[in-house]
Amino acid sequence: MADEMSKEESKEEKKKSSKMLMIIIIVVLVLIVIGGAVVAFLLLSDDEKSANTQQNAPQQVQQAQQNTSYRATRDSEETISRKLSEIGILYPLDTFTVNLKSDAGRRYLKATISLELDGKELSVELDNKSPVIRDRIIRILTSKTLEEISSKKGKQKVSEQIIDTLNSMITDGSVKGIYFTEFVIQ
Fold first, then answer.
1. Which of 16-20, 50-54, 175-179 has the weakest average pLDDT?
2. Residue 45's CB: how many other CB atoms inside 10 A?
3. What is the pTM of this model?
4. Is residue 173 within 8 Å of 106, Cβ to Cβ?
5. Residue 102 and residue 56: Cα distance in Å, rounded?
6. Average confidence (pLDDT) over 132-146
7. Distances from the Cα of 73 to the Cαs of 57, 110, 128, 156, in angstroms?
8. In 3D, which of 95, 59, 101, 55 has the Cα closest to residue 79?
């Protein structure tokens, strides 16, 4: 009888320990899911906060910057809400395939860019300076890491840098915006 009692007790202990193990596994999985949701929320809300910060910036700061009325520093919501009829002349550039800056050197970016111009006369100057423009854009893109260009904020910074660089080179007008028509990172 004592053997039967000890066998029943050991079966009950095994059942209790397996139930306890199952509860622990479920709790750990729930915590992982909640942690992932919190991280995703924080990452996504960071982009929204930066857009709201740019949108709420005082007009005095915006006026202090040179030629900011048409620069890519406008937040993405404003750019999206622009009507197609308000977009100026587009100047398509060839596709850029560049290695990204990294330790392993195994990441590359394939991007096709179109420039928004403020006048037709600028397209002639861009045609004449095409090799120099491609060189400057390639230098900018290759100086970026995967982390710098993978977010919306990072793409915006790259656009601003390209616009600033090109506007400092040209004389017959200015580049108002940059549109990535293809953007593949591998």
1. 50-54
2. 11
3. 0.56
4. no
5. 35
6. 91
7. 11, 23, 27, 7
8. 55
pLDDT at 12 (0 to 100): 72
The Cα 127–Cα 136 span in angstroms is: 15
What are the tokens at 17? 């320990």
Residues 101-121 have pLDDT tens digits of 887 768 889 999 999 988 888
> Are the C-beta atoms of residues 137 and 93 closer than 8 Å to each other?
yes
Q: At what angle do helices 130-142 and 152-169 cross, to 10 degrees?
A: 150
**Identity at 90, one-letter amino acid code:** L
Q: How far is CA 173 from CA 7, 14, 81, 91, in A?
A: 90, 80, 24, 13
Compute the C-alpha angle 70/72/74, nearest 5°: 80
Contact 84, 128 (CB under 8 A): no
Q: How far apart are alpha carbons 8 and 5 in whole angstroms?
A: 5
Question: Would you call 100 exposed, middle or buried from its count of C-beta atoms within 10 A (0-12, 13-18, 19+)?
Answer: buried
Alpha-carbon gap, residue 141 to 159, rounded angstroms: 10
3-state helix, strand, coil in the chain (%, to 5): 60, 15, 25
